[in-house]
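Subject: two folds for Thursday's group meeting

Dear M.,

Sorry for the delay on this. The cluster queue was jammed most of the week, so I only got both jobs back this morning. I'm pasting them in the order they finished. Each block is the input sequence followed by the predicted structure tokens. Could you check whether the formatting survives your parser before we put anything on slides? The first protein is the one we discussed after the seminar.
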Amino acid sequence: MRWLRFCWTLLRATVHAVQGFWTIKTVFPKLEQADREARVQVWAGAMLRIVGIELVVKGKPPAGGPVLLVANHISWLDILVMHASRHCRFVSKADVRGWPFVRTLSDGAGSLYIERESRRDAHRVVTQMAERLQAGDILAVFPEGTTGDGITLKHFHANLIQAAIEASVPVQPLALKFIDAASGAVSFAPSYVDDETLAGSIWRTLTAPPIKAVVVFGEPQPPQGQTRRAWAQSLREDIESLRQQA
């Protein structure tokens, strides 16, 4: 029965992804940016429901930009969860551009790309982020740089926080958490960390008991003359506190 459930859910998710791909290719060129963003948010919410994840949003998502969202990182599902709670433009690894199907979905959602190993590229992306923030966008980053275990936060890298300082815009922390819908305990089914494989994470997610994805939005914080490193550490502490509210 688990295999049957897995195959059926995976099929439905694949069909939904293909429909999203087709919409981006054929419909998005005719839409205004706000309409594209609304479609991405609806699509992400539908995908979560297909894979059996209930979205719970606490706090106040930003009504509009400019603002930089900063979140902890747990799973490949995080981007879907955040898009479903409030559309935003992500800063993603440049590797995504090498996956044609995924890149189309990512481009359709408005992602920016960074070569994480290159300091020069980090500077370019910070400049681009600052420009987009000044234009009124909502951007989102995972300052841990990689997925964690869902229990302990990793070190927060401060480089991309510099964009909010240069643009003089607020940063809004948010915490992500996956919990078992029945017990309220942390669910490790969507985990994708260390030696875990994407295939294994997808299998666990699609065959697990019902899961809730909890998003807790904190209060936006103006720069107030902070250095990027001090601000990154403060945001890490804020997100740790928000995780306790999930």
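Second protein, same layout:
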Amino acid sequence: MADATAPIGVFDSGVGGLSVLGEIRRRLPGEALLYVADSAHVPYGEKTPEFIRERCRAIAGFLLEQGAKALVLACNTATAAGVAELRELHPGLPIVGMEPAVKPAARATRSGVVGVLATTGTLKSARFAALLDRFACDVQVITQPCPGLVERIEAGDLHGPQTRALLEGWVRPLLAQGCDTLILGCTHYPFIKPLLGELVPPAVQLIDTGAAVARRLEQLLAAEGLLNESGNMAPARFFSSAPPQQMAAILPLLWGEAAEVRPCPV
């Protein structure tokens, strides 16, 4: 039986999962957090499913060696490729994945047209196709792959002309087709919500799933008696498979404070 004071392990292809980590911290402030950015291999969206599954196995193993009592795949592409295998390898371990918010977006749209900004890997996945079959039968879903956007966010370019130009080119045709609800189908994308807010009308809803993941994590931990209710906020610990100074430089922007980043050895 895991200890309730043990940390929660969270990982992503890069720093995008910090958006999810922030939601977990807000909902579960007493939990110790471990975060791995696999930035040496970012983005996952253009990698093969086999490669992504190998990375998921390796990083999950590292986090469990660090004592993690639960895992969060803070990456839509990693979830699509690897969450099923991780659940088979670690039965009984609370594991939470990500998926694009097709269900709430289908409920929210008034025009009946939903846009999806996501990586190529997420949009090609069987998991995404199943979401459309299950929840989007009565709406039109227009998908837009966003090559290069993850790299701009990894570089800390949340408002610059290059990022703006990319987004304008992707969003304009969605709006022209009547999209009134926009799914942010990658955990990196919530960081460019302010910029998106300048490019779309106020009536267009921007939907992501970070808060829902935090709620689901809380439910699973409570069911296993693993919620840390000590009331003491432990500092998050950060690891990166890329040179740690790269992540350390962007943490104040994306996490809101500086912190040490250690090498991830896998």
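Two things I noticed about the second structure. The beta strands are 8-12, 33-37, 70-73, 95-96, 113-118, 140-145, 181-184, 205-207, 237-240, 261-263. The chain has a mean pLDDT of 94.

Cheers,
T.
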